[in-house]
Amino acid sequence: MPKLGMGPIRRRQLIDAAIASIHEYGLADTTVARIARKAGVSPGIVHHYFTGKDDLLFETMRQLLADLRADVVARYASARGPFERLNSVINACFGDVQFSPEVVAAWLGLYGTARQSERLQAILTIYHRRLRSNLVSDLRALVPPQEAARIAEGIAAMIDGLWVRYALMGGVDDPLIPRTLTRDYLTAALAQFDNKKKTR
Amino acid sequence: MPKLGMGPIRRRQLIDAAIASIHEYGLADTTVARIARKAGVSPGIVHHYFTGKDDLLFETMRQLLADLRADVVARYASARGPFERLNSVINACFGDVQFSPEVVAAWLGLYGTARQSERLQAILTIYHRRLRSNLVSDLRALVPPQEAARIAEGIAAMIDGLWVRYALMGGVDDPLIPRTLTRDYLTAALAQFDNKKKTR
Amino acid sequence: MPKLGMGPIRRRQLIDAAIASIHEYGLADTTVARIARKAGVSPGIVHHYFTGKDDLLFETMRQLLADLRADVVARYASARGPFERLNSVINACFGDVQFSPEVVAAWLGLYGTARQSERLQAILTIYHRRLRSNLVSDLRALVPPQEAARIAEGIAAMIDGLWVRYALMGGVDDPLIPRTLTRDYLTAALAQFDNKKKTR
Amino acid sequence: MPKLGMGPIRRRQLIDAAIASIHEYGLADTTVARIARKAGVSPGIVHHYFTGKDDLLFETMRQLLADLRADVVARYASARGPFERLNSVINACFGDVQFSPEVVAAWLGLYGTARQSERLQAILTIYHRRLRSNLVSDLRALVPPQEAARIAEGIAAMIDGLWVRYALMGGVDDPLIPRTLTRDYLTAALAQFDNKKKTR
DNA sequence: AATGAATGAGCCTTCATTCAT
DNA sequence: TATGAATGAAGGCTCATTCAT
């Protein structure tokens, strides 16, 4: 929990510096000293604004989640109808932010660390639940609940799978490719359902 | 004469111990001492059989890749035709081995570390290329090259996405679910192509 | 604000502790922990003020050179004429400082290590060049250049030879002995030249 | 003490390998493993022929002394009269062997280590005493005892001083230089005495 | 609020030595 | 005699954390 009034600016500086350090050195080689240097402050300051290194890193990962959520919400604002809302999610997950080297490094670092920490694990759990619930929510406006759950599962896997493949392979040349593949999957799934309906 | 031929045995012991340690403590908190203790040997012996900790960890990750490959190859043996071969890949990727906590921990650790090491990066690159080439190879017997590439991309993403989601959420209750979802995706993609063909 | 200006103080403390450790344990058995203990600080602090052990040891050896130089310069201040200046050098090289067990241990340690390190080698090179140039400079006021070079070579050898013999034999009972022997060599060399001149 | 009959060949192999290692890595970085590798044997063998590493190193240093002695004795054989015998000593001390990089490295290593070990110290003590006694013995045939002692002291210092300077500066271009300087010192000292005698 | 000096635990690695074979 | 596997004790160094200022 952020200690309000105690300097949200410093906190954000340090979180950004942490992300920068994870990008440059990797999570394993990210030290308090390196974060502080990148933030242009002294190493000791970290313990004024965070319980310790783990806390700063936790808040850093939470920021990733918050940024992604904010991006989705922003895109929702201009979306008309459930299909466009689904696209908002897809586009946010494959947006420039999510494929930036810094963010990629941080997420992948989280992947490799979450198992050892309940708090970090929780961040990923929230991410997964939220993604699924966002998808299901809009899919239910298009197909029956059971179908919605199944399709949401598939799209979520598609999103994570394409992201992780591109992330691990060192970025993506054309960000349209994962979007297109995922959207094709979505439209195919919806079409398949429509066909079933017609057949009946 | 000292005990001869201890090399391969000790090496394998240490690799297994490394995996066990990554499972129990996480990659970041896996130390040479812990690996050695799990292997029941002294810490110094590690440098008898490996250049150093990094080397042991690299070989450990390489073992993951080799084990997966061996699993696929074994399943290929009893596969009849391209469709069954595609299923061999899917089943191997979602086999009990790949979802065992030890293997999950190791792969996820690799995800979070590969960016910092060319050698580790290479392991993931080989994994990705091999998966894709395996899929494309059999899909070409069923659909035209261009379609094969597109479908392979989708299946690979599906495999990685489902695996990573289940892996991060702490394993999978029913290993049939990811297999079914992926196979549905495959059959749908093939069916879609057949429809196109018929329509023409 | 933390304690300011601790840098130079700690650095000198550690250098002195290093010399003390070399004296007590020998250069080969001088460890960071031992140096720190002698300095009354924690082992980790060494890397706050020096790049590492090698750096501290290098600075330690450099201090030897600086101390010797300072001693010579101080004696120069009260020297009248070239002959007295030559004696200043001789007296400094055979002063109490240079025969103190700590300084002896450090110089001898340097002798045995310099071959493996360019930086340490450089210290000895500077010492040798400086000694020779000091001698030559004053001898030129007494004899022709060529003679000056030859005599300087001889005196330098005399100084190093007597020092090393006494150093290796565990110090010197009467520091006047090496001084006298060297001064005799000097006066004999000068007399020899004067004789030549007269003969001509 | 060499264990006779237990393999003097192996012992000598190991001593030579030790010298080679001291030359290549320095005394501080000379390990049992490196010595063994240079000797083409297994690391464990060292403890069959020597009490341990220290013992091997001690015997190595003792070999240096023995080699120098043998060289002097060999030159004595063809020397006619005390003056030539004195030259034998000078020539041996400045012979190719004593200026070879391997021998230089070993002697300098001994310089830096002797203070920590009585046994090693003893080697240097023997060297110093022997050199002095050799010189005095022959000088007594030329000058009165008191003069002989003084001149011997000077020549010994000259020998050690020139050797150490050339050794530390990375070898000697012309081995004649130190010989000439020392011989000049000797002849000058003898001439000086003759003059005194004549004057009287 | 902020600094950076200082601590001390822990890690990777090296190495002399031992020992079963 | 000879091997090289194996041990276990340090050693140098890093680093999160604390604290006087």
SSE layout:
4 copies of one chain form a homotetramer.
Chain A: H1 8-25, H2 32-39, H3 46-49, H4 53-77, H5 81-93, H6 96-99, H7 101-113, H8 118-139, H9 145-168, H10 176-199
The structure holds a DNA duplex (21 and 21 nucleotides).
CATH arch. level architecture of chain A: Orthogonal Bundle
Give the CATH superfamily of chain A: Tetracycline Repressor, domain 2
Uncertain stretches of chain A: none
Strand portion of chain A, in percent? under 5%
Largest protein-protein interface:
A-B, 42 and 42 residues
How many domains make up the 3D coordinates of chain A? 1
* E-strand count of chain A: 0
What about the largest sheet of chain A?
none
Structural account:
The structure is a homotetramer of 200-residue chains. Chain A has 200 residues and is mostly helical. Chain A has one domain: Orthogonal Bundle (Tetracycline Repressor, domain 2). Chain A is built from ten helices and no strands. The first copy, chain A, has helices at residues 8-25, 32-39, 46-49, 53-77, 81-93, 96-99, 101-113, 118-139, 145-168, 176-199. In chain A, helix 5 (81-93) runs antiparallel to helix 8. The model of chain A has no long low-confidence stretch (mean pLDDT 92). Chain C binds chain D through residues 25-29, 104-105, 108-116, 121, 124-125, 128, 150, 153-154, 156-162, 164-165, 168-170, 178, 181, 184-185, 188-189, 192, and chain D through 25-29, 104-105, 108-116, 121, 124-125, 128, 150, 153-154, 156-162, 164-165, 168-170, 178, 181, 184-185, 188-189, 192. Chain B binds a DNA duplex (21 and 21 nucleotides) through residues 1-4, 6-7, 10, 31-33, 41-48, 52-53.
